[in-house]
């Protein structure tokens, strides 16, 4: 049994302008000790998927249907009290912006100890020791001194380390990292990614890595989910997604990023702009921007199909190819 | 470098900001400290470095948006000194800003935003001419001319950046400073805007100073690349050269830290992970600013700032221990 099973998750925001289907039928499994990457552009629903798992959506947001199972236990509908036992203890999250996710009016030590005492039966002294131990684990120099300092005395990279220490203090089974390095410089990003990889090996937790940076995904992830307009268009092992993409959107993304060898030549951007979630088309959400779109793409959404053992994609092009290669036969009717 | 015609040249540029450090005391923050370089006509010079290294300040000082503390700025073989020089210079240069949200006035229509440089320099004789120019510019950057009377908030990030670019093109400049023009955009939109910069350069013979922190984007668009660290320029060379054979230890770390969008290469990539953070520019280390994080630092590095000199044809670097680290 997978550690985390998300099945047909639908999350909507109810705004004055109408219902925004931010997550629209997302399903995936996460195995123990694996790193899963979720990539997509802004508005693709990658963060909302994570917030739905943690049930920390804004007031207007609601899980409409679907199931999230952690270790066999259903999380949707267990209520706030039930979720409190899961958050921090079993599943932790770190956010993009280390500047705003710490409270500026309390010391780092206070905030770390608060998290530890809330989730484990430690007293103040034990919580202090544990907090110092965690800061040492994430390579913060002079942890005893740093415990008494306030967030403004920390640099961006140091704050993100504190966030990681806080998230890992109760030894969660899953760490959700929502764009953990987007706000950081490259050399600091390298430090944080290295740290996360090392801690993942030591503590054996699973990581869900949410990012728009394909470089970060290539470096960190065993498995990758590509999201567009609230649904998963492709899922597979990192090598499959990068070397054998089977959805037109993923192919477009890969073509549109500059690589080490791509100098001089023009990039191949995806035309148009991301879709308006208030007015979703009937067919494939990517069809209006897709160069290869066929009639059926406008009419009907393609279901996810198995490409091979490690790879699924939801694109009619694969059906067309299979048909042309004679792997499918026209149904007689 | 005599084979190339330099469009913009800076010599020993310094930009210090006074910071209040006591009731009657100020300490100079050396945002840019003794930087010299030249940009050739028609080329793109990429400027990279971490936040706080002074790359944006270089871009702004170059256009006289900040008054330089010291140093010379030359444009087209003429030094910019008097107020009239600056006015003439500004007609030939422009800037595209990072944030397409805060760099457009929300109370102005798109046509007023684009025409503002024309208004300032009084470059039209009639209203009809002004409108014609605006529509021409909008077409040039791929904006629908029907949108001229709309406001900035009605556009997406990518379209806003196009408005910003149209504004920069309004006076027909020769030189554009692009300050992180694509870093606020989504990947698929980024490529559209990068291609547009390429096309405009080909069509209009523009010269760019392209400031960015995304090293793959900079490598893609630039002919030459300069690397800054803590207000100093540490290395400058052709784009290929600096990626394939970086000489300065900081450049080496920077290049190896780039996450490559290719799992096999990412696994093979031997990252040099720097310890520690970039020091505060208020308390910059003596001598070479990189020495506190440099794996090759020696006593000499603490004593004096190494000279920024040409170590191979067209390849400049500032390091005392180039032999040791290569």
Concise description?
Chain A has helices spanning 46-54, 79-86, 108-119, 124-137, 143-147, 156-168, 186-203, 214-220, 238-243, 248-256, 295-299, 316-324, and strands at residues 4-15, 18-30, 35-39, 61-70, 73-74, 91-94, 174-178, 206-211, 223-228, 231-237, 305-308, 311-313.
Description of the structure:
The complex is a heterodimer of chains A (333) and B (326). Chain A has helices spanning 46-54, 79-86, 108-119, 124-137, 143-147, 156-168, 186-203, 214-220, 238-243, 248-256, 295-299, 316-324, and strands at 4-15, 18-30, 35-39, 61-70, 73-74, 91-94, 174-178, 206-211, 223-228, 231-237, 305-308, 311-313. Chain A is 35% helix and 23% strand. Chain A contains twelve helices and twelve strands. The model of chain A has no long low-confidence stretch (mean pLDDT 90). The longest helix of chain A is centred in the middle third of the chain and has 18 residues, at 186-203. Chain A is α/β, with parallel strands linked by helices and 333 residues long. In chain A, the strands form two sheets. Chain A has an eight-stranded mixed β-sheet, sandwiched between helices. Chain A has a four-stranded antiparallel β-sheet with strand order 2-1-4-5. The mean pLDDT of chain B is 90. Chain B has helices at 55-62, 83-92, 110-121, 127-140, 157-169, 187-204, 215-221, 239-244, 249-257, 263-268, 299-303, 322-325; strands at residues 6-20, 26-40, 44-48, 70-75, 78-79, 93-96, 175-179, 207-211, 224-229, 232-238, 309-312, 315-317. The radius of gyration of chain B is 21 Å and the shape is globular. The longest helix of chain B has 18 residues, at 187-204. Chain B has twelve helices and twelve strands. Chain B has 326 residues and is of the alpha/beta class. Classes of the chains: A alpha/beta (333), B alpha/beta (326). At the A-B interface, helix 7, helix 8, helix 9 and helix 10 of A face helix 6, helix 7, helix 8, helix 9 and helix 10 of B.
């Amino acid at each position: 049994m997978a550690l985390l099973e998300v099945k047909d998750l639908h999350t909507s925001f109810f705004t004055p302008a109408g219902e925004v289907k931010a997550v629209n039928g997302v399903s995936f499994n996460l195995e123990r000790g694996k790193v899963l990457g979720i990539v997509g552009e802004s508005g693709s629903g990658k963060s909302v998927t994570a917030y739905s798992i943690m049930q920390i959506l804004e007031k207007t947001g609601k899980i409409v249907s679907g199931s999230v199972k952690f270790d066999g236990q259903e999380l949707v509908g267990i209520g706030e009290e039930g979720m409190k036992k899961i958050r921090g203890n079993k599943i932790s999250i770190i956010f993009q912006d280390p500047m705003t996710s710490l409270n500026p009016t309390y010391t780092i030590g206070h905030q770390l100890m608060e998290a530890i005492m809330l989730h484990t039966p430690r007293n103040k002294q034990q919580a202090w020791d544990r907090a110092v131990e965690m800061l040492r684990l994430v390579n913060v120099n002079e942890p005893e001194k740093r415990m008494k300092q306030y967030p403004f005395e920390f640099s961006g990279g140091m704050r993100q380390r504190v966030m990681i220490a806080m998230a890992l203090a109760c030894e969660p089974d899953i760490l959700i990292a929502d764009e953990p390095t987007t706000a950081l410089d490259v050399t600091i990003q390298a430090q944080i990614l290295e740290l996360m990889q090392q801690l993942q090996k030591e503590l054996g937790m699973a990581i869900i890595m949410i990012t728009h940076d394909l470089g970060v995904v290539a470096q960190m992830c065993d498995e990758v989910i590509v999201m567009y307009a609230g649904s998963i268009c492709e899922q597979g092992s990192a090598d499959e997604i990068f070397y054998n993409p089977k959805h037109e959107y993923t192919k477009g993304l890969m073509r549109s990023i500059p690589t080490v060898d791509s100098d001089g030549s023009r990039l191949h951007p995806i035309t148009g702009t991301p879709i308006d979630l208030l007015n979703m088309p009937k067919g494939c959400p990517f069809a209006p921007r897709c160069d290869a779109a066929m009639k059926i793409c406008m009419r009907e959404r393609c279901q996810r199909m198995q490409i091979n053992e490690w790879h699924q994609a939801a694109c009619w092009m694969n059906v067309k190819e299979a048909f042309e290669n004679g792997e499918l036969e026209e149904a007689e009717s | 470098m005599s084979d190339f015609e330099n469009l913009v040249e800076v010599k020993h540029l310094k930009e210090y900001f006074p910071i209040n450090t006591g009731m009657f005391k100020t300490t100079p923050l050396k945002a840019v400290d003794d930087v010299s370089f030249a940009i050739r006509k028609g080329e793109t010079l990429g400027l990279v470095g971490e936040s706080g290294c002074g790359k944006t300040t270089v871009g702004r000082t170059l256009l006289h948006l900040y008054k330089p503390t010291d140093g010379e700025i030359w444009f087209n073989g003429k030094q910019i000194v008097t107020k009239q020089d600056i006015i003439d210079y500004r007609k030939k240069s422009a800037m595209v800003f990072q944030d397409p949200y805060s760099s457009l006035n929300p109370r102005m229509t798109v046509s007023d935003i684009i025409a503002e440089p024309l208004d300032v320099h009084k470059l039209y004789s009639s209203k009809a001419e002004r409108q014609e120019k605006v529509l021409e510019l909008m077409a040039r950057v791929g904006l629908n001319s029907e949108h001229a009377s709309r406001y900035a908030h009605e556009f997406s990030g990518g379209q806003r950046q196009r408005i910003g670019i149209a504004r920069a093109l309004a006076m027909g400049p020769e030189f554009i400073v692009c300050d992180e023009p694509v870093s606020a955009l989504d990947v698929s939109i980024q490529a559209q805007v990068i291609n547009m910069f390429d096309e405009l350069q080909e069509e209009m013979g523009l010269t760019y100073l392209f400031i960015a922190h995304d090293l793959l984007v900079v490598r893609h668009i630039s002919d030459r690349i300069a690397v800054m660290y803590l207000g100093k320029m540490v290395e400058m060379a052709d784009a290929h050269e600096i990626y394939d054979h970086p000489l300065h230890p900081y450049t080496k770390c920077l290049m190896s830290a780039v996450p490559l969008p290719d799992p096999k290469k990412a696994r093979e990539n031997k990252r040099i992970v720097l310890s520690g953070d970039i020091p505060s520019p208020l308390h910059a280390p003596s001598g070479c600013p990189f020495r506190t994080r440099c794996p090759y630092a020696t006593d000499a590095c603490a004593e004096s700032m190494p000279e920024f000199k040409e170590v191979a044809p067209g390849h400049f670097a500032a390091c005392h221990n180039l032999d040791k680290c290569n």
